[in-house]
Automatic annotation (TrEMBL):
UniProt-listed InterPro entries: TPR-like_helical_dom_sf, TPR_rpt
Pfam families xrefs: TPR_12, TPR_8
Protein's UniProt name: Uncharacterized protein
Organism of origin: marine metagenome
PROSITE patterns: TPR (PS50005)
Length: 305
């Protein structure tokens, strides 16, 4: 409707923004239509280029990068994000500079180039501190922590998570703070500090968002049980995890968690539905293959990876 109204009024700038809004709706929601979204964005970009509107050009380029990022066209996404960054820097638009740096960092994260991702995030963090955007600072701290965890530097990762958590708690952002505490629990788990991990997970379970988020804390506890060789406790906790996931239709990291569950059943000498694993592998997401592939026994057990 906004696009139709803008076209009736002949307001080119508003037409450009409306085209971008329509494209955003097309790539944000489940009915992802990249071709149509990019078509709207090309039209939006053309309008802003005709007007010489650098800010509008930058926003259109950024949105195009988002579409390619979602398609995992990382090189193309990086190209558009860098063009957005160049324009933002020319305009000295610090908020847009921070957004561009963050977006570029996510591409390097997808490429498993954690060092480059950290470099861009630290630049974005410096800008957010300068402008006093605390929520943005917390997000950058969290992403830096995630990169360090992927590098295996769990101690450094926890420092950044704790910094992000302090900001989120001070801002009263309970849901996001809960997610960070879960990350901290997993960090302790990865460091082998199982008692601290379990205490963190159990404390975090006191916050229930009603959407199944506690399943992630339970999963952490179950994996600690597995690592300690307490397979019956691990099985019982994973049964609870999957019951919650089913109730709330949670599918993220399904293969990763199911792989653990399979190994637990195997240790207990109990039957498990191997075709389920095969089906999950066939329909898996890249992050699932990445994490499940970390198991040394994965290829030996499944002969499919």
């Amino acid at each position: 409707q906004a696009l139709t109204q803008a076209e009736k009024l002949g307001d080119k700038k508003e037409i450009g923004h409306s085209l971008r809004y329509v494209a955003t709706m097309l790539y944000l929601f489940k009915k992802f239509n990249p071709e149509k979204s990019l078509d709207y964005l090309e039209r939006s970009l053309a309008v802003f280029e005709d007007l010489g509107d650098q800010e509008g050009i930058g926003l259109a380029l950024n949105a195009m990068g988002n579409v390619h990022s979602r398609q995992r066209n990382t090189d193309k996404a990086l190209e558009y994000y860098n063009r957005f960054l160049t324009i933002a820097e020319a305009l000295n638009d610090k908020r847009s500079i921070g957004a561009a740096l963050n977006n570029i960092s996510t591409i390097y994260m997808d490429k498993n180039d954690n060092d480059s991702s950290i470099d861009y995030l630290k630049r974005a963090l410096a800008i957010s501190k300068e402008t006093g955007e605390k929520a943005s600072s917390a997000g950058f701290l969290q992403n830096i922590g995630w990169n360090y965890s992927q590098k295996g530097n769990y101690s450094c990762s926890l420092d950044y998570y704790e910094g992000a958590l302090t900001i989120r708690e001070n801002l009263g952002q309970k849901l996001v703070a809960s997610g960070l505490r879960n990350f901290i629990g997993w960090g302790y788990k990865d460091m082998g500090e199982y008692d601290k991990a379990v205490k963190t997970f159990e404390k975090n379970m006191s916050f229930d968002d009603g959407r199944g988020s506690i399943s992630w804390d339970l999963a952490g506890i179950a994996i600690v049980d597995f690592n300690k060789g307490e397979y019956e406790a691990a099985r019982d906790n994973f049964d609870r995890v999957f019951a919650i996931r089913k109730k709330h239709d949670i599918t993220e990291f399904e293969l990763y968690l199911t792989t653990y569950r399979f190994l637990i059943y195997k240790h207990l000498g109990e039957d498990f539905d191997l075709p389920l694993i095969q089906k999950l592998i066939k329909n898996s997401k890249p992050e699932d293959i990445y994490h499940a592939g970390k198991f040394s026994s994965y290829e030996k057990n499944f002969r499919l990876y």
